[in-house]
Amino acid sequence: MKSRADVVIVGGGVNGCGLAYNLAKRDMDVVVFERDYLTSGATGACGAGIRQQWSTRDNTLLAIDSVKIFEKLSKELGEDIDLRHGGYLIAIHDDKEMQQAEKNVEMQRSLGLKVDILNPQEINDVVPILDVKGMNAIGATFCPTDGHANPFKTTFAYANAAKRCGATIYTHTEVVGIKTQKKQVTEVVTNKGAVKTNIVINAAGVWSKDIAKMVGIKVPNVPIRKEIMVTERLEPMFEAMVISFKDGIYFSQQKEGQIIGGIPIPEQKVGYKTMPTVSFMQHMARVLTRYAPVLKHVNMLRHWTGFYDVTPDARPILGETKDVKGFIHCHGFSGHGFMLSPMVCKLLSDFIVDDKKSEVLESLSLDRFKDKRIEHEMSVVG
Ligand SMILES: Cc1cc2nc3c(=O)[nH]c(=O)nc-3n(C[C@H](O)[C@H](O)[C@H](O)COP(=O)(O)OP(=O)(O)OC[C@H]3O[C@@H](n4cnc5c(N)ncnc54)[C@H](O)[C@@H]3O)c2cc1C
Fold this sequence. Notes:
By secondary structure, this protein is an alpha/beta fold. It has helices at 14-24, 57-77, 95-110, 120-126, 151-164, 208-213, 278-291, 337-354, 359-363, 367-370, and strands spanning 7-10, 30-33, 49-50, 88-92, 116-118, 139-143, 147-148, 168-170, 175-181, 184-190, 193-196, 200-202, 222-233, 241-243, 250-253, 258-262, 300-310, 317-320, 327-331. The longest helix is centred in the N-terminal third of the chain and has 21 residues, at 57-77.
């Protein structure tokens, strides 16, 4: 094992590998530790939807800039990440949701996003299989440049490019401790050896809480189990991701034809429980076929669990705090860390290499909870 590195990254998900690439391409000597295999965390369980329609300015900015990076990523990394712009159609069910949607769209347009409010008749122009009455929609918002990419291909493309730029990735290597001196990171200890460094990035997803504890920092994140399913392959029927904040459902059709989607279940609990439930399958089937009755006789092939790393305001925790110098936060994505990863990795790398602070990093710092600078992200699935 290497004895020293400029930066050590904990976690081999899309953010850990994206950070490794962004830093290594800027000549930093980078080490990544992943205790299992790359994508073994939330990244390998996710729906991998890419949405720019948010209620908070920070998330919208991060997502818009991420899409710009996603669009060039296959070429830049030299591997196809299967990016598709099918759009996101967000159902609006009542007047309260309509008011919030109008507010969101105004803010999103002010940042240059192309997004429209559709009336019920226009919903079927985008997704013909939807039963607009059955889903109780009075309208929808639609952004055609939202979409989807393959989370495995994206993460491995980042990892391979990082290695080509000189990064070292150790899989099956668990970080068990972080040493500090005078509130400065000095060493990362694993079950296979230790690496001296002055900078460590906590990109350990839903386990970031444990990594922060190693340097005495408490983070407010909670792990929430989510379930997601995939159906058999079908003829191509629609391209958009359909989503409802009220019903909690989201689903889209992949380019190979299968439908991937999820929904929260009533007995959803905080904690690291991986067991999939029958009630998820029942609830998902009921709501999905209410939205799209044509899917009634389709076979669900597989369903699995993963965790959202949820913060009190459903926004990520990024950057360094004064408590420990050289300890960088990159977690708390609250179910949206794939789509934000390209810009998050760039901003954190610019901060580490150039000491460049940005408004977004400042606003999403852990200190916001202490300073009561909390703005809740409203556009989340329960
Ligand atoms: C069901 C589901 C659907 C989702 N859908 C979407 C979506 O449509 N769009 C979207 O943007 N996001 C979605 N997400 C969220 C998204 O998956 C995550 O936010 C994102 O993948 C987080 O990536 P990450 O690299 O930060 O963390 P992770 O992918 O969780 O990676 C963290 C890694 O750290 C490793 N690790 C932990 N502790 C240690 C240690 N001590 N030592 C070494 N390694 C360690 C873990 O093994 C893990 O591989 C979804 C999540 C789930 C569960």
